[in-house]
Amino acid sequence: MNSVSEHYENHLAPIYLWMAGGMDAALARGQAEVDAVCARPPAGHLAVDLGAGFGMHAIPLAKLGYFVLAVDSSATLLKAMLGHSGALPIKIVQDDLLSFKKHLEGPAALIFCMGDTLTHLADRQAVEGLFADVAESLNDGGSFIVTFRDYSASLRGANRFIPVRNDTDRILTCFLEYEEDAVTVHDILHERGGPGWQQRVSAYRKLRLSVDWVTGALKSHGLEVQSDQGIAGMVRVIAKRPL
Q1: Please, are residues 47 and 111 in contact by the beta-carbon 8 Å criterion?
Q2: pLDDT in tens, 135-150
Q3: pLDDT tens for residues 171-214?
Q4: How far apart are CA 88 and CA 183, in angstroms?
Q5: Per-residue burial over 138-158, b = 16 or more CB atoms within 10 Å of its CB, e = otherwise
Q6: Contacts of 149 (CB under 8 A, 6+ apart)
Q7: pTM of the predicted model, to two decimals?
Q8: Bridge partners (DSSP) listed for residue 236
Q9: Is the pLDDT of residue 8 over 90?
Q10: Smallest Cα–Cα separation from 20: which of 48, 46, 68, 59?
Q11: Residues 25-66 pLDDT 10s
């Protein structure tokens, strides 16, 4: 089984923009998510985007007025962001998101961890460590906004096969296998090439995190927490450092 970084760089990163419907569609969704939870900041306020990918949220945050630190482990996805960010105030860093603190030059007004990035961490201890670093890195009144997919309830039978996207030349499906604390995601890609269809399969593990566990862990670090529904079946949690 591949690590998360290997799975993304070698299997998903080359098709990630296609999965998202193209850059314009992805940025429009990112802009909608940013607009739903973020006000226009005072000049010079710092936002951190953990697992920034190709800039789905980093670019809208920079357009809103934040200076953005964008951290991701995928060179392929960060190259795509660089090609679309122009002169926007974004510092792009290729690194493990758990190492974000060493790239900070001061406290952050906002930290994003969007998509299903949180479940990519190795274990709950790593999640706890991230939450501790986030709480220490926010300025007073700053916000941590995270989305994730709640895998705490197991899908069964054919429901474990989930169509992701398809067109005339490419089909992506994922298959889920549940363990006690994790789910193994098999991404099955069929691409038309040569005389017919070619299949590539790669698998990696995601954590099974419940809303109650995530909100409880954030509260244990002194943050004020609320949760609601995000896009595409995700849970959205907003945690604020008290003034």
Answers
A1: yes
A2: 999 999 999 999 999 9
A3: 999 999 999 999 999 999 999 987 889 999 999 999 999 999 99
A4: 37
A5: beeebbbbbbbbbbeeeeeee
A6: 116, 119, 206, 233, 234, 235
A7: 0.93
A8: 147, 228
A9: no
A10: 59
A11: 999 999 999 999 988 888 789 999 999 999 999 999 999 999
Q: What domains can be seen in the chain, in order of their start residue?
A: 4-151+209-240 (3.40.50.150), 157-206 (2.20.25.110)
Q: Tokens 């990696």 belong to which residue? A: 204
Residue type, 140: D
Find how far residue 34's CA is from the centre of its chain: 14
Q: Cα separation of 7 and 171, whole Å?
A: 17
